[in-house]
């Protein structure tokens, strides 16, 4: 099967949009990702998938910490910035939780200590043990078929 067919099929899975952040020395690094998953409640573990050619790969390995911020529908410009989809310079507002930068006003920010990593194919899966969570209200930014979108709830009729 061609790479394009596989990529198009994966694009048909609607996701939220996250920004993964870490701090290496005094430098803050971030990347937009939709490859995120919670994997365990006890202990509280999540995983993110990072391309083996991404700068973020070595930054997470060296810092031993990372955060995942779930973006709101009002933060598409931040998603585009960290995805390299715009050439405009942008000042990003961060909060710092446990010495890890998170996107200010994100719907949720999950700060993790790196538990372990697995190189799988052309990506590395980073498993993080959740150390801290910050929550705010709002609606999520979504991603489907290569395009950003907004969440729309579906009302169900009462069943008799």
Structure, explained:
This protein has 160 residues and is mainly beta. It has one domain: Pnp Oxidase, Chain A (Roll), CATH 2.30.110.10. The protein is built from three helices and twelve strands; from the N terminus they run αβββββαβαββββββ. A seven-stranded antiparallel beta sheet has the order 3-2-6-9-10-5-4. The protein is globular and about 50 Å long. The model has no long low-confidence stretch (mean pLDDT 93).
Question: What's the rounded overall pLDDT mean?
Answer: 93
Q: Might you state the CATH topology name?
A: Pnp Oxidase, Chain A
* Main structural class: mainly beta
Gap from first CA to last CA = 47 Å
Based on DSSP secondary structure assignment, what is the total number of beta strands? 12
Low-confidence stretches: none
Assign the CATH architecture: Roll
What spatial form do the alpha-carbon principal axes imply? globular
Computed Rg: 16 Å
What's the number of domains? 1
Helix content: 10-25%
Please write the CATH class name: Mainly Beta
Listing every helix as H and every strand as E from the N terminus to the C terminus, the arrangement reads HEEEEEHEHEEEEEE
The percent range for strand residues is over 45%
Q: What characterizes the major β-sheet? A: 7 strands, antiparallel
Number of helices: 3
Assigned CATH superfamily: Electron Transport, Fmn-binding Protein, Chain A
The strand order across the widest sheet is 3-2-6-9-10-5-4
